[in-house]
Amino acid sequence: MKVKIRGIYATALTKLLRDRNFEIADPSDPILDRFNLDEVGKSADILIYDKEDLNGVTINGCDCEEVVKILKESFDDVFVRKIEIGTIYRGKIRRFDQRSKNIIVDLGNGKQGLLSLQNYWGYLREGEKILVQTKGVSREFYLLSTQLRIFGDNLVLIKNGFTKVSKHLKDEKEIERLMNLSKEAKLRGYGVLWKALAQGKSDEELRKEMERLFAKEEEIRRKFEESDSPGQIERGLVMYFIDFGPEAKRKLDEIRAQVLPTIPGHHKLKSFEYMELVDMADSLIGKVDQKVLEESISKTLEKNFPKVGSNYFVVHKKLNGRNITIKGQVEEFSKDLIKLKRTIRYRGSYDGLNLRTEAGDFAITKFREGGWFILHEYY
Fold first, then answer.
1. Residues 2 and 47 sit within 8 Å (Cβ to Cβ)
2. How far apart are CA 178 and CA 253, in angstroms?
3. What is the largest CA-CA distance in the chain?
4. Where are the beta strands (DSSP E) in 224-290?
5. Domains in the chain, start-ordered, CATH in brackets?
6. Rounded to the nearest 5°, which phi and psi values hold at 242?
7. How far is Cα of residue 340 from the mean position of the Cα atoms in its chain?
8. Distance between CA atoms of residues 253 and 348, nearest Å
9. Do residues 45 and 62 lie in contact, with contact meaning Cβ atoms separated by under 8 Å?
10. Cβ distance 6 to 56 under 8 Å?
């Protein structure tokens, strides 16, 4: 199985997966040098790259579940969120919500979706069946579109869409080749989104996949006409979002250190975007006393700590993908403890305490790095 890895965790994950007999595809120049790789192909089955917040990685591609399994076995504090987008349904229009301008669509098996009126062409009739595709989730509803995207391993066909390439594709010649391969789809009224996994695949292989996707689209429309009952027609694209906890980052440091000099806290600090500081510190290992080096890093970080009395916010990430922002004034900020004072502004009651909030109430919220809980004290 071939995997392409990019980002701040690339060295550690390359080591981890190579030790489990994965092949590394299209490695960056530093990875080529660090692992003495040669004759490496560009085509990959699985793509791993940093999440936008740098706190973990995104994984997609064929059999990516195997990589997720290895990460869960290797680290105790990895948090896995699986998202499936692009699932195609035969829906049934239930009603129109005048306030939100959304059509409520029954998807079968107790599932409901929201389709913006702007995305619906035709006379709106309750009970009418409609071909829709999921593009996200909002609370108990799926967010829907009528613009079909047909997912393949290396490309996505987009009905009446634009042709473009993944932001992870950088090779200009490869981009030009893929754009030329898109001409057939354009003639049939489709745009193509080329995935990074398309890199290095032969023209013949990609053309065959495109033809399979055209055939799949015809099959989807045939299944849509077969019945009037709402239900799933085609499964969508599965992606995994992995967050690494403090212990996982520490173990990733240890794995990386088997390949080249790595300071303790390497991945934690890089996830905080201290890129240059970490690179410099790594380069000084063996040249400067380790204790002196770590103390120097701590002093540098402390200079950037927020001051007492300043406003600060902490993002609480929930396992369902939602983020809750906790805002307050700094009462204490050190490497061991963060203490915030928060004014209670909402009217209601305290969760689990059966007490009403009152004017003048405030909370002291305490966090510890690596802690498994947050402490709220209400006054």
1. no
2. 37
3. 75
4. 231-234, 237-244
5. 2-82+240-257 (no CATH), 88-145 (2.40.50.140), 149-235 (no CATH), 266-302 (no CATH), 311-378 (no CATH)
6. -110, 125
7. 29
8. 45
9. yes
10. no
Distance CA 281, CA 352 (A): 46
Distance CA 96, CA 123 (A): 12
SS3 content of the chain, % helix, strand, coil (to 5): 30, 35, 35
CA gap 65, 267 in Å, rounded? 23
CB atoms within 10 A of CB 203: 11
Interacting residues of 186 by C-beta distance below 8 A, sequence separation 6+:
163, 192
Q: How far apart are CA 77 and CA 72, in angstroms?
A: 8
With H, G, I as helix, E, B as strand and everything else as coil, classify residue 128.
coil
Single-letter code of the amino acid located at 127: G
Closest CA to 113 of 140, 150, 82: 140
Strand partners, 155: 194
What pLDDT is attached to residue 39?
A: 67
Q: Which residue has the tokens 């489709």?
A: 190
Instruction: Spell out the residues 6+ positions from residue 32 whose beta carbon is closer than 8 angstroms to its own.
Output: 38, 40
Per-10-residue mean pLDDT of the chain, 379 residues long, equals 94 97 92 86 87 94 91 95 91 89 93 88 83 87 92 91 90 93 88 91 94 95 94 90 95 97 96 94 92 91 89 82 85 89 83 82 88 87
Q: Is 84 helix (H, G, I), strand (E, B) or coil?
A: strand
Query: Token pair of 306, please?
Result: 């927020």
- SS3 for 238? strand
- Return d(Cα 261, Cα 254) in angstroms, integer: 10
pTM: 0.79
Q: Is the sign of the CA dihedral 7, 13, 18, 21 positive or negative?
A: negative
**Rg for the chain (alpha carbons), in Å?**
25
Could you count the other beta carbons within 10 Å of the beta carbon of residue 329?
Answer: 16
